[in-house]
Specification:
This protein is an all-alpha fold. It has a domain at 69-135 and 189-222. It is built from twelve helices and no strands. The longest helix has 51 residues, at 102-152.
Length: 402
C-alpha cells in the first residue's frame, strides 16, 4: 500500500514537470523546422554534377592553353628538343655501351646532328642560288603564257582587263611596301625569337640526352607518394609512344621526300633538293602536311615545264601519298600511336589555333601520347568498379616502400 502511494506521487510529480521541460526545450531549440529538404530528380542531380565538373575542366584547359600560347617561345623549343632526344637516344645508348660517358656521348651525337643539318642546309642553299635565276626566267615566260591564255582561252579577257588586274596587283604591292618599317620590326622580333629558340633546343636536347632519367625522377617526386607509381608508368608509356611515333614519322617523311624528289628530278624540275626538304618537313603533319608541301612541286612544275608536266607531278604526289597512307602508316604505327583520322584532323586544327604551324607539328604526337596514357591508366580500372576504390593507391609489393 505504501509503495503504491509512493508510485502515484512520483507519477504526479513527473506529469507536473513535463510542461516545464517542454517549455525549456522550446526556448532553447526553437521548435521543429517548418521547412523540408528540397528533392530533385536523380537525373538532374547527376547532370548538375557532370556540368560543374565539366566547367572546371574546360576552365583549367583554357588556362593551360593560354599559358602554352603565351610561353610558346619557350614551350615549343622544349617540345622540339624532346622530339630530337626521342629520335637520337638509341645512338647515345649505343655509344654508352662502348664505354663512353653519357654526357660525352650526348655531346658527340648533338654535334654530329648539327654537322648533318649544316651540310644539308648548305647543299640546299647552293641549289637555290643556282636555280633561282633559271626559275625566274621561266616565271617570266610562264606569266607571258598565262597572259596569252587569258586572251585566247575561254575567258577572252581584253588587254584593258588584264592591265587593270596587273595595276591592282601593283597597287596592292605598293601598299604593302609602305608598311615596311612595321614589317621590319616584326621580322626582327621573329628572328630574335628564332635564335633564342635555337639555343633552347640545343641546350635542352643535350640535357635531355645526358640527364633525362634524373630530370624525370625529379618530376615524379613532385607528385604525391600515392600517385608516383602511376605517374612514372604513365610517363614511360608516353615516352615509348613518342619514340615510336617520331621514328615512324621520320621514316614516312623520308620516304615521301625521296619519292617526290625523285619524280621531280625525272621530270627535270629545278630546286629538287628544296622540294624534298619542304616535303620532309611537311610530312610531320600527318594526312595533310606532305600533300600541302607537295603542291610546291606542282607549282614549280607548272611554272617551269607547263601544265602537262604539272599534271604528271600532281599524279606522282598523289601516288606517293597513297603509298604512305595505305602501306607505311599502318605498318610503322603501332597500337599505342594509332590515332583515328578524325582525331588527327581535330588535333591538327587545335594545334593551329593554339600555336599556328608549330602547333600543327606538335599536336598529333601529343595526341598519340595522351591516347597511350589514357589506355594505360584505363587498365588499372575495371568496368563497374567503385571510383573511390579505383582512385586508391595500389598496395605496395612485399619489400617495397612508398
Amino acid at each position: 500500500m505504501v509503495s503504491r502511494i509512493r508510485m502515484l506521487r512520483e507519477q504526479r510529480r513527473d506529469r507536473g514537470a513535463e510542461p516545464a521541460r517542454e517549455e525549456k526545450t522550446l526556448e532553447i531549440g526553437g521548435g521543429p523546422s517548418n521547412f523540408s529538404p528540397a528533392h530533385v530528380p536523380w537525373g538532374v542531380d547527376v547532370a548538375a554534377a557532370w556540368a560543374w565538373r565539366f566547367v572546371v575542366i574546360c576552365a583549367a584547359t583554357l588556362i593551360i592553353l593560354y599559358l602554352i600560347k603565351f610561353f610558346v617561345v619557350i614551350v615549343l623549343p622544349l617540345v622540339i628538343a624532346v622530339f630530337f632526344a626521342a629520335l637520337v637516344l638509341p645512338v647515345v645508348r649505343l655509344l654508352e655501351r662502348a664505354r663512353i660517358r653519357r654526357s660525352i656521348a650526348a655531346l658527340i651525337v648533338e654535334l654530329a646532328g648539327l654537322a648533318v643539318l649544316g651540310v644539308a642546309l648548305t647543299f640546299i642553299g647552293q641549289q637555290i642560288a643556282t636555280g633561282v635565276t633559271d626559275l625566274s626566267d621561266q616565271v617570266v615566260n610562264g606569266l607571258g603564257e598565262i597572259r596569252r591564255w587569258l586572251k585566247t582561252g575561254p575567258l577572252h579577257a581584253s588587254n584593258s582587263q588584264i592591265n587593270d588586274f596587273i595595276q591592282n596587283a601593283q597597287h596592292l604591292l605598293t601598299n604593302q611596301a609602305q608598311d615596311i618599317p612595321n614589317q621590319v620590326t616584326e621580322i626582327t622580333s621573329a628572328v630574335g625569337h628564332i635564335l633564342a629558340g635555337i639555343f633552347i633546343v640545343l641546350f635542352a636536347t643535350y640535357f635531355f640526352l645526358a640527364d633525362g632519367a634524373l630530370i624525370w625522377a625529379w618530376i615524379v617526386r613532385l607528385f604525391p607518394r600515392a600517385a608516383r607509381r602511376h605517374t612514372d608508368s604513365s610517363g614511360r608509356v608516353a615516352w615509348r609512344s613518342l619514340v615510336q611515333f617520331v621514328r615512324a614519322t621520320v621514316l614516312v617523311a623520308g620516304t615521301d621526300a625521296i619519292g617526290i624528289a625523285v619524280i621531280a628530278a625525272v621530270l627535270g624540275l629545278p630546286l629538287v633538293g628544296t622540294i624534298g626538304l619542304l616535303v620532309f618537313i611537311g610530312a610531320f603533319v600527318p594526312m595533310i602536311g606532305a600533300t600541302v608541301s607537295g603542291t610546291v612541286a606542282v607549282l614549280v612544275a607548272l611554272v617551269a615545264k607547263g601544265p602537262v608536266v604539272a599534271a604528271i607531278m600532281l599524279g606522282g604526289v598523289v601516288l606517293v601519298q597513297q603509298i604512305e597512307a595505305h602501306v607505311l602508316q599502318p605498318f610503322l604505327m603501332g597500337r599505342f600511336v594509332s590515332v583515328h583520322p578524325l582525331g588527327v584532323i581535330v588535333a591538327v586544327a587545335a594545334g593551329v589555333l593554339v600555336a599556328g604551324i608549330p602547333g600543327a607539328l606538335v599536336a598529333v604526337p601529343l595526341a598519340a601520347s595522351v591516347n597511350a596514357v589514357v589506355q594505360h591508366l584505363a587498365g588499372f580500372t575495371r568496368v563497374g568498379e567503385d571510383p573511390g576504390r579505383a582512385a586508391a593507391p595500389d598496395p605496395a609489393a612485399p619489400g617495397q616502400g612508398s
